[in-house]
Design goal:
There is one protein chain. This protein is an all-alpha fold. The chain folds into two domains: 60 residues, no CATH class; 68 residues, Winged helix-like DNA-binding domain superfamily/Winged helix DNA-binding domain (Arc Repressor Mutant, subunit A). It has seven helices and no strands. The longest helix is centred in the N-terminal third of the chain and has 23 residues. The relative contact order is 0.09. Pfam families: Sigma70_r2 (PF04542), Sigma70_r4_2 (PF08281). This is RNA polymerase sigma factor. Belongs to the sigma-70 factor family. ECF subfamily. It comes from Neobacillus paridis.
């Protein structure tokens, strides 16, 4: 269950929270299980749905997850935030991401903007830019890696 949750969040602490939440959901609905031989699949499905719900919740809040594999800048701002500090931090981070993106090559900027701001899939970006899908994936990977390297404090 932890592995599934981690695959979605790429964060150990969030994955632990998701597994705990999934177990609570399972405990509350254990009486609905008809075939106990399939309990592993049932728990996996609950874990996956809980992870997806978590990610949707984070997206609605305007939060973002940073990890060693992936970095997605925050696209836009969320209105009606409860916490002004969160809003200021998110805006400052967005400004830093925007400044950092200016240092990337034009090709990297193109694919990141199309992916993040417009939500296009790799195949759609490839078609639009008249590139191979593999080229787009490579550019996205390199652009994210370079962006993360510039944004992550060295210690």
């Amino acid at each position: 269950m932890f592995y599934l949750a981690y695959q979605y969040t790429r964060d150990f602490f969030h994955a632990e929270d998701i597994v705990q939440e999934a177990f609570l959901k399972a405990y509350k609905k254990i009486d609905s299980v008809d075939d106990y031989a399939k309990i592993g699949a049932w728990l996996s499905a609950i874990t996956v749905r809980t992870a997806i719900d978590f990610l949707r919740s984070e997206k609605r809040k305007g939060c973002y997850l940073l990890d060693s594999d992936m970095l997605e800048p925050v696209a836009g701002t969320v209105e009606n935030r409860d916490n002004i500090e969160e809003e200021v931090c998110a805006r400052l981070f967005q400004e830093e991401v925007d400044r950092t993106m200016e240092r990337l090559s034009v090709e990297s900027q193109q694919v990141l903007i199309l992916k993040i701001q417009y939500g296009l899939k790799e195949t759609e970006i490839a078609s639009l830019l008249k590139l191979k899908s593999g080229t787009v994936k490579t550019r996205l990977y390199r652009a994210r890696k370079q962006l993360k390297r510039c944004l992550t404090p060295t210690g």
